[in-house]
Write a structure and sequence with these properties.
One of its GO terms (molecular function) is ATP hydrolysis activity. By secondary structure, this protein is α/β, with parallel strands linked by helices. The chain is about 30% helix and about 20% strand. The structure holds adenosine-5'-triphosphate and nickel (II) ion.
Length: about 325
Amino acid sequence: MTADRAPDTAPVLDVRDLSVRFRMRGGNDIAAVSGARFSVAPGECLALVGESGCGKSVLASALLGLLPANAATTGSALLGGDTDLLTAGERTLARTVRGRRIGLVPQSPAAHLTPVRTVRAQLEEALRELTGARGSDLPKAALAAAARASFPEGHLDRYPHELSGGLAQRAATALALIGDAPLLLADEPTTGLDRDLVERTVDELRRHTDTGRALLIITHDLAAAERVADRVAVMYAGRIVEIADAEDFFQAPGPRHPYARGLLAALPERDFAPIPGMPPELGALPEGCAFAARCGHADDRCTAERPAFRADLACHHAPTGRTHPLKEAADA
Ligand SMILES: Nc1ncnc2c1ncn2[C@@H]1O[C@H](COP(=O)(O)OP(=O)(O)OP(=O)(O)O)[C@@H](O)[C@H]1O
Ligand code: NI
């Protein structure tokens, strides 16, 4: 899939050195995202993975202008080659970006659905606004929109508080798919769904990319990521530590970063061996590599000096780019 991509295709989203700091009372700032750099091409699905609290949702909120007032953002995030999402301003984001140029499946769907309106009413409103559907076309279009996200027809007249977590998730996904935005940003779109529905949902999200649209999916479900992604970006303690082709990552030769290898090894269907220790506090990050304290490969340099993100990897054990440091070490 990735190999078929024309090399000169301009990215739908191009994020450069994105950082988000939360200013806290007492001066102990939280570095929620640091120096994130990635792009998503037309027709591509990029999965952003990493443990809870590593900054995935903050990154997504930064792209949509949905951060709270105590957040300070630097860097750039170019949408469609012409709009820097970080400087665009609320008016532009509200009028032309959110819902129209970027569809969002939010992490807490219940909080994003309008509490006083039924799912059907919300779908019809989004259809009117984003597709121009009118009158007698609306009911049929609402049914079709619900079906895309496997939302059962019999529940369309429920209010958000009458929905289970999984149903609220599907309602939010149905809403996000309306309008066929050039970029779909799905933050944990499969929470609360059983495996069968997880697969149907991610397959539907994937279909969004069939016509050159892009998908950025945030998930800690690595099986779901493997199912849909062309490339995988791994985040740890606010930093992207590796970006890899999904096939290389999940099959052979496997991830290059020790943290990413640990994530895969922790899966029940693999070694079921959790990474020892805990990630550092984002308000008190160590000077060197944030993963050093948990890494079996760490040496003095790792604790002293933070590895730069080069050739899609931030690890001192790969100074020359795309070679596979851990594999080489094992072969030696
Ligand atoms: N408004 C805020 N003020 C201060 N810190 C915040 C704020 N919002 C988020 N954070 C912190 O930013 C960090 C990253 O949070 P984020 O929600 O992005 O994690 P995540 O990777 O999406 O995790 P999960 O997988 O659990 O959704 C966390 O340490 C969180 O406590
Ligand atoms: Ni999150």
